[in-house]
Amino acid sequence: MKKYLYILLIAATTIVSCSKMVEGINVDPNNPLDADPNSMLTSVMVGNMNIQEGDLARFAGMWSGYYRGYTQQYLSYHQYSVIARNFDDAWRRIYSGDYKNIQILKEKARAINNRRLLGVAQVIEANLMGTATALWGDIPYSQASNEKYTNPVFDAQATVYANLQTTLDSAIVNLNSSAFVNFSAQDIHFAGVMSKWIQTANTLKARYFLHTKDYAKALTFAQSGINTQANNFMAPHNATNRSVSNLYFQFLSLDRPNWIDATGMYGVSLINPTGTRYRGNSKTVERARWSFFYNSATNVNFTINDFFGQTTFFPMASYAENLLILAEADARINGVAAGLIRLNNYRAYMNTGAYINTTYLTAGNFRYDPYVATDFSAGGIENAGTPALAQDRALLREIMEERYITFIGQIEGFNDLRRTFKETDIRVPVTLNFGTQYPQRFIYPQVEIDVNSSIPNPLPTTFDPTPINR
Fold it and tell me: What are phi and psi of 361, to 5 degrees?
């Protein structure tokens, strides 16, 4: 009996030892299945950066007259010829990637009562989904992250915007909370400085009220928005390796050289001092800004010191945008005197050099003197055409043109063109790339058409305005 017990003991010990030897053998350390909330934060930030700065920004830029696609499939994209498959990757990154992970991050933040981290996640969610609804219109939102809904409904665009406003209101409350676990090391935007996140939340609120044409509320929230260039909500980049370089630089220099240029584009002609549409006048010199965005009449500038350069931070919400929200909203709500003060505040900022790299800020290359009301009266330097516009409309036209130039390379330029499409007296008259219709939206991707029975029917086309722009 003792012999048998000894044999069983040896066998049991061997089994336990072998189990320990193979324990964890199927766990890939390079493919983690879970992470703590602080570690997740950086990944969802990078995911959002990819949406704001990547493929969608390039599509929007081609359709906004900032640059053209002229070879391979980009020639077709430039001519508004797209198919549903062209948007599959971006849609996956939004929903399967970033949005889903933001929901997990929010749950984890709530579980440890890290209210500030929750607030940051809510701001990122609002930025991500605000961009999605602006570009596609009705989108899955309320049911999108809940796996019990196999066919999540497409919420009305106006409803999505309203829900995003609620999300941002909640974010501001959470960002003001004293309950948090420090995550400054993982916060690649603001290193845990809550005042900057709160200002960003208010600028995003103002942006989305502008999208929905609620100009009074846009004015209100912009007054609490980003109040200095140092507080800009930026996508950071450096040259340590390819993956952290500016995404435009990666495309223009490394991935698809010569697929995009600026030949004949409306945006480049407005600030080219030798261009036929040059917007300069006795109070405005655009040579520095022209050099920052373009290095010739035919090419965007992606050298080291320019907007599309390898280490250039990309703006996702900025002091410049906030100043121009104030200018447009105040002009629409309170008239010429109020709007003019706001516009001149922006021009004073531009006179400091603003966001232009100092390489280009040599004497005589930039000038933004303040305007006076008579500049917008019939015959003034900003209302010299025939027939002349009413003074308030001439001022708004100048503000919209300034927004258009400021948003070169950004999605907001495309959003503005569609928002003001019916205001033919003040919208920027971008030349069509092809045909007789201007694109009004991105079309739904094939990956959603194939699996979600809730997809709108009939499917909208590229030229169907989104609901808020009808």
Answer: -95, 55
